[in-house]
Amino acid sequence: MTARKKEEGTDRRVFFRIAVCVAILAVGIAAMAVLSKLKKPPVEAVETEQALKVQAMRAVYEDVPVVLRGHGNAAPVDTATLSSQVSGTVVFVHPRLDVGEIIPKGDVLFRIDPRDYETALEQAQASVAQWTSTVERLRREYQREQARLGPLTRTRDLARSEFERLRRLYTQNKVGTRSGVEAAEKAYQQALDQLNVLRRSLAVYPQRIQEAESNLRSAQAQREQARIRLERCTVKAPFDGRVTSVSVEIGQYLAPGTPAVSLADDSMLEIAVSLDSRDARRWLLFDRTSSRPPVAWFQNIRHVPCRIRWTEDPSGHEWTGTLHRVMDYDRKTRTVTVAVRVTAQEAARTTAGGLPLVAGMFCSVDIPGKTMERVVRVPRWAVTFDNTVYLAVNKRLKTVDVQVARIQGDEAFLSDGVQEGDMVIVTRLVSPLEDMLLEVEPADRKAARTAREDKRS
Q: Residue limits of the Multidrug resistance protein MdtA-like barrel-sandwich hybrid domain (predicted)?
């Protein structure tokens, strides 16, 4: 009886707990229903597309002359390192022989002690005089001996005739004596011997004269060599030159070939400019015809005026040079080196407070080339790395492929892909979405070009 009462009490407690939970759940559901009825419905959002503000410029076809830009150091065309050609002690040095001084043409730079060479010249002159006298003496003797040839020949003929007459009278007619015949024969033999001696002497004279003349020419050559050596004791400036180095002083002994003075001729400067071979092939101007014989080199390059600016101050230092020739083709770097020359008159032209163009200045050189026809000029940054540009078409962004004819400074020139009148976006964009909405503002072409030219200058 007691166990049953305990079970009934436990069941009542369980039912009570379940009822309490159900009541709490019902109250919560009712509260949620009431709260949901009290909440206002959310306002429906209206989606609007945001427009991207960009600047665009209208594409215009134009013919643009190409300008090839390179850099190089200005240097004199002619330089000379002068050395002594004879040995000796320096006895004179030009009073202004210092680096940077301008020495006029013909001025004596330095002089070697000439006394030994003057003595050698006097000896050579004496030898020439001696052999000249010998040649003249031999020629006079030869003429005298030739003059004796006729009388001796006549004497021989007379002696022979007398001998033959006496011998014939004695042998045929028994007239005269044997001693007379023998005396006549002796006279004939003496005349014949004298004539033969003279003939042998005359035969030797041309050889003797020739040998004397050879010795005379040798003496004259030695005299000329001595004169040249004496002249070489004095070293003069070969042109109006600027002294670039000096290594000679009074009292110094110089051996032949020892460098003493270096001069630079600043009357003509030259700048060696390296250009990419592809640019040179495509844009450099060459004349089709030439009067020169054909050679395997760049011989018909057109001598066009070039713009030269000092890189340290491009806006304040500018000169005009002339494209002169192609100097070299480097097979390793695939570059063509051209020479641009500047006259001294042009190099000396300066602006207020400016400097002249001098050797050693590092300059930029603009070389005019061929003309690009019907190209569109856009800022360089308007073209992506994969040669595409962004167009504004009906306020929507469109991506088109283009062909870049040339990039020149901060400008790119398009030869294909953009039509005249297209609006080319010049604002820098990073991964824009195709067909996105745009708010287009016209770019100030004139202001942009002025800014580019100022930056380039």
A: 79-260
